[in-house]
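Response to reviewer comment R2.3. The reviewers asked that we include at least one raw input/output pair. We reproduce the pair for Iron compound ABC transporter, permease here without editing.
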Amino acid sequence: MLMRSLNEVEIRSQPPFSGQSANPQKIFTVPFVLAIFAVMALGVISLFTGVYDIWGQADGRDMFFITRVPRTIALMLTGAAMAMTGLIMHLVTQNKMVEPTTIGTTEWAGLGLLAVYLLVPGPSLVLRMTGAIVFSFVGTMIFFLFLRRVRLRSSLIVPIMGLMLGAVISALSTFVTLYFNMSQVIENWFIGSFAPVQIGRYEYLWIIVIVTVILFLYANRLTIAGLGEEVATTLGVNYNRLIVLANALIAVCVGIVAAVIGNIPFLGLIVPNIISMVRGDDLRSNLPWVCLTGMGTITLCDIIARVVIMPFEVPVSLILGTVGAVVFILILLRQRRSRRLR
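Raw output as returned:
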């Protein structure tokens, strides 16, 4: 009975966006299949893009499986992870401007990495991931505690508050870095790049698949949580437990990506907003689209980063940051225009 109520409210809660399909629960449509082929094509291009000649060198085949294949897999998993985090945050905060970059979660992950390096010289990847995940979770929970005390939750107040909190954490990280002479650690984290990815350095990203499955299983309840605490409580859903679960999923994704790849900005802002404009706010049917679009976006940006000044490589965070900033401004202008029309 509860599941039936959740499904009914979830369907009713979707706003009538133009271009939204008549059946929001239908996932495998012709456009989705075409999108799959497009992402697969980008993956193939990524496999064969790079300075090293895998065809002409004797060890080209080995280098292909040591670097190119892991890099492409890491791109896909990272794109899906960061896009999902933005989608979850949009729901639980009821704000389209919120994602790990705009509420300080990535800064907390960087502080967690720094703390691990201070406590354990030469830490393993598991230790770095653990520190980033724990600090990401704590930082996101602190943000939500602040958010509960703010009565005015406009589309601008919430991200501005998050950016201010992130700036404080970033300043603290910078101070600790300079004091202990560990600038190289924090600089490597800020330069989000897939260049160092190879066999043995990316496998923990597969945990993101487990996070995706959990998110899909709890999609209905998280959609209800996105309607507010009162509605969720009325329907018999434990709102606080769902918020903790959502923050845990966000922290795992952000922490793993921060430890393995580095800072990946704005992907959680770009992708969910575009999908939401087209398909509405149904988490269950939007999740495959968000993951797929995130994969394609970050793979395309990484290909551009590899060829724009070849034989050198631009950090993919630079490309994503530029695109994300432009999209962020366009979304703000769109919201301002919609308010004027009202």
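Residues 6 and 220 are 6 Å apart (CA to CA). DSSP finds 14 helices and no strands in the chain. Further pairs are available on request from the corresponding author.
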